[in-house]
Design brief:
Layout lengths: L2 H6 L16 H18 L1 H16 L6 E6 L5 H12 L4 E7 L2 H11 L1 E4 L12 E7 L7 H14 E10 L3 H11 L6 H12 L4 H12 L4 E5 L3 E6 L3
Parallel strand pairs: 1-2, 1-4, 2-3, 4-5
Antiparallel strand pairs: 5-7, 6-7
Helix pairs in contact: 2-5, 3-4, 6-9, 7-8
Length: 236
Amino acid sequence: MSFTAAWSAAPGRGEEFLDHPAADPKLAARSLRDVALCNRLFGGINAVIAELRPVFNTARPTGRPLTLLDVGTGAGDVPAAARRAAAKAGVALHTVGMERSAPLAAASREMSGTALAGDAFAIPFADHSFDIVVCAQVLHHFAAPDGARLLAELHRVARQRVIVSELRRSRIAAAGVWLASWPMGFHPVSRHDGVLSVMRGFRVDELAQAVQSATGARPTVRNRRGFRVTASWSPA
């Protein structure tokens, strides 16, 4: 089976409620707050910050500020955490969050800082516009052809580093999300979509092949705590 066919046929590729074009923006914003809580408690934020630290360490001696674009920023929690981590490292960081609609972008602005609506398949910035481009828990929403388009766009607009953080596919993790969602007060849509998201996640070899097929780059791919997996690479 080809990689494209394997990705499309991966377990649990059913549709998430909030992937539907007609999804209520208010419900989407509510669900994205649940995702942000899950990121904070179960490793999503830590996975991204672990990939950012080497970039900050390299930038600190130069004193040059950095820019970061977070594609599919959700509640804006990743840019907020990135700015805190950069400040601790002694690096000035300007962040921009991007969401698919104006209401979602506006809802993220409190944490993301600057936020705008844009198409992830045609990011509204020139080539190499940002030092760092991050995309966390977004790739699994797309089947292979569209996922490859997304990865190619991340690669295009980055200058120094691209960081993709994803869920690691696991039935144990899916069951954990379901069980934890009750005491955490998740909306039923968040519960449904969260479980399905895990089952649409990636293993290390799958994510590495996805990046290389779409961009030609050879990423560094690592398993992270909390059933996460990250891929990072230099667009150069």
